[in-house]
What we know:
The protein is α+β, with helices and mostly antiparallel strands and about 230 residues long. About 25% of the residues lie in helices and about 25% in strands. The chain contains eight helices and eleven strands. It has helices at about 5, 15, 40-45, 80-85, 115-120, 155-160, 195-205, 210-215, and strands at about 25-30, 55-60, 65-75, 90, 95, 95-100, 130, 140-150, 170-175, 185-190, 220-225. The strands form three sheets. Strands 6-1-3-2-7 form a five-stranded antiparallel beta sheet. A four-stranded antiparallel beta sheet has the order 9-10-8-11. A hairpin with a 2-residue loop joins strand 2 and strand 3.
Amino acid sequence: xxxxxxxxxxxxxxxxxxxxxxxNAHVRLFGLPRSATPADITRxxxxxxxxxxxxxxxxxxxxxxxxxxxxxxxxxHDLPRVLAALREVKLFSHTxxxxxxxxxxxxxxxxxxxxxxxxxxxxxxxxGSGSQGGITDVGRAVLLAGLPGRISPDSVRVxxxxxxxxxxxxxxxxxxxxxxSSLTTRVLVRLATPSEAHRxxxxxxxxxxxxxxxxxxxxIRAHVIH
Length: 226
């Protein structure tokens, strides 16, 4: 028997049918195209009249989209109906698979505020995984990958001097490399506005980093963290 069918008997008894540790106010959505944004998903829900969803957050791994998202429900009573409705939905020919889930982990306290983000970077707490990549500045945060492994945050600030950053030295955070032998690194940059974040991505994605010095050695890949 499907989980949604099991819920139909009594809305008051929903907690008893959930897997242990799962939330009756959240749904994890699988099968999304990796290019999907929260706005795409919100429009899709409206198109198919899926009501009761108050928030959409993408699920990331090391700031790369996973093709999954977390939906926060306005009420626990909406869970069986939302689960059933989402099983009939497709996005860009992708068949979606809804499931119950534990409550998504919120960004750590050290990731809030410029000082906190700087401390988090020093402690390697900015991992970029989970709901919203574990950060709060979604929409105006940009991941730059493919930069020289030994580049410093100050060098990145100089490189981005024509763009308006959010403010403060902690708004450029160099992330941990995948391995000590990696020749490239990734940097998280917080811009002043979402439009400035999108401008940065349009300008630098798939371009060469300082080709007059490095020729074609480093290709930048950039995307907005939604």
